[in-house]
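Retry 2 of 3 after timeout on previous attempt. Resubmitting structure tokens to design endpoint.
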């Protein structure tokens, strides 16, 4: 049971890491776009990144029992940083990334579920280039430690 849970934790935790890596790798190309092209292009990420992003809270729910069921000290000290990294990554998503996502999707035609997920006040428009860099790179530092600690 524990081995299966650990394997599932690694698989599910790799999804947010892959999404963070994809955002980071595309950033240099995005910086070459003018503001209007950048804003038009942002909506193409919905719903793919939104669906994949569901793995973030799911990974927390899967790693939590791994932490609670650890009997070995070394394994526990590796699983706890993974859980902390995942919680930090999820908190940063809601505090930094989600308000900006609401801005990008203002006026977009969303499904009912998507509209409720992106409901709320969008972030104020700032320099779009700075906003892009901060939101795309904010989650990146937390994804690899969470995955590596579970490996």
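Retry 2 succeeded. Sequence:
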């Amino acid at each position: 049971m524990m081995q299966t849970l650990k394997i599932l934790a690694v698989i599910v935790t790799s999804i947010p890491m892959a999404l963070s890596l994809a955002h980071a790798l595309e950033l240099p190309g995005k910086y070459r776009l003018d503001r209007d092209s950048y804003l038009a292009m942002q909506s193409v990420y919905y719903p793919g990144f939104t669906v994949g992003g569901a793995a973030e809270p799911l990974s927390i729910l899967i790693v939590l029992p791994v932490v609670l069921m650890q009997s070995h000290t070394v394994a526990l000290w590796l699983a706890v940083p993974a859980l902390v990294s995942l919680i930090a990554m999820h908190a940063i998503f809601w505090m930094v990334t989600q308000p900006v996502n609401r801005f990008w999707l203002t006026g977009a035609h969303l499904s009912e579920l998507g509209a409720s997920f992106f409901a709320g006040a969008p972030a104020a428009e700032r320099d779009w280039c700075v906003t892009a860099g901060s939101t795309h790179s904010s989650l990146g530092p937390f994804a690899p430690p969470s995955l590596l600690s579970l490996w």
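Attempt log closed. Residues 15 and 55 are 6 Å apart (CA to CA).
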